[in-house]
Design goal:
Number of strands: 0
Low-confidence stretches: 3-28
Oligomer: single chain
Helix content: 55-70%
Number of domains: 2
Order of helices and strands: HHHHHHHHHHHHH
Length: 308
């Protein structure tokens, strides 16, 4: 599990928790706690603000121009936010909550506690792999066909601002990988070898680059002047910021990081593995316990929400 994906979207369980406490989708035997509902809404909004990538993944477009790098200062801000929200959540007396509110409370409490406990495992030290690496996450956003919208000139300006932040984002990620090498928190060599072709392909500056997608598929509403303007700006940003950063990541990953990767494949070979496995196991147990409290009708509605 790498940092880019892990921290760049709200858990579906948290989103579900917000819905459970603030809508009439699920029946309530007693009135829901309005203060708890407001707390969930505040959490959702504040989480988007401090974690703009999660906002983008959730379809919230307010922060589509931001790309904070996972350096020590930013990670400390995330920690403080989670700790503050957990402390505020614990002020609610669960004895006064109805069953659905209590489930929502426990889901978010588990989410926050799990996030705080997971910090010791330093997933930010392993930002690149062949499935969810930062090299894929950034390319997906910049392709123009997925989560980052490219419908208006503001959308295009937003991505240009994120492009400007990509070099620092990747520089910080490289520094995090160096910390991982020093502490033995690295990905398997078999995984690293599969990520290299991806990096090589994404680092090429040619007409097939995924990053040129937005200027190959302009919205019909764009004027000729808009198209010329953004074609020029995107080519400059891609050639001068994005691809050089990718090439730097590729050079470090291939020449320096790869020789330090581990020969074992399982997570059990990591120094913090047993704590990590125990943490995931307890999380799974709690989820199973909570889900057993839902009726079959509730579960069906929950599945429908996940599809949406």
């Amino acid at each position: 599990m790498n940092y880019f994906i892990y921290s760049k979207k709200i858990s579906i369980l948290v989103a579900t928790a917000c819905i459970l406490t603030s809508s009439n989708l699920l029946s309530q035997s007693t009135a829901p706690n309005q203060k708890l509902s407001q707390f969930f809404e505040n959490y959702y909004n504040e989480n988007h603000k401090i974690d703009p990538l999660s906002a983008t993944f959730d379809g919230e477009n307010k922060y589509n121009d931001l790309l904070p790098a996972p350096d020590s200062k930013y990670l400390a801000e995330l920690h403080n936010f989670r700790a503050k929200m957990l402390a505020e959540l614990k002020k609610f007396d669960t004895k006064t909550l109805n069953e659905k509110d209590k489930i929502s409370y426990l889901i978010l409490k588990n989410r926050l506690e799990n996030s705080l406990n997971s910090e010791q495992f330093h997933t930010e030290y392993m930002p690149v792999d062949q499935f969810n690496g930062i090299q894929l996450g950034i390319a997906i956003l910049g392709s123009g066909s997925t989560l980052q919208p490219f419908k208006t000139t503001k959308d295009y300006d937003n991505w240009l601002k994120r492009c400007a932040a990509i070099p620092n984002y990747i520089n910080v990620s490289i520094e995090n990988m160096k910390k991982g090498v020093k502490t033995g928190i690295v990905i398997p060599k078999s995984t690293a070898l599969k990520a290299i072709p991806q990096l090589e392909n994404l680092s090429k500056n040619d007409s097939t680059s995924v990053f040129y997608g937005p200027i190959k598929n302009f919205p019909e509403s764009f004027s000729k002047q808009d198209k010329v303007k953004y074609t020029t700006a995107f080519k400059k940003a891609i050639g001068g910021q994005v691809l050089p950063a990718y090439q730097k990541l590729l050079t470090y990953f291939k020449n320096d990081y790869l020789p330090k990767t581990r020969l074992t494949d399982g997570v059990n070979s990591l120094q913090t593995a047993m704590h990590f496995i125990k943490n995931l196991f307890l999380k799974a147990l709690l989820r199973a316990k909570l889900l057993r409290k839902f009726t079959q009708s509730d579960l069906q509605k929950w599945k429908e929400l996940r599809v949406k």
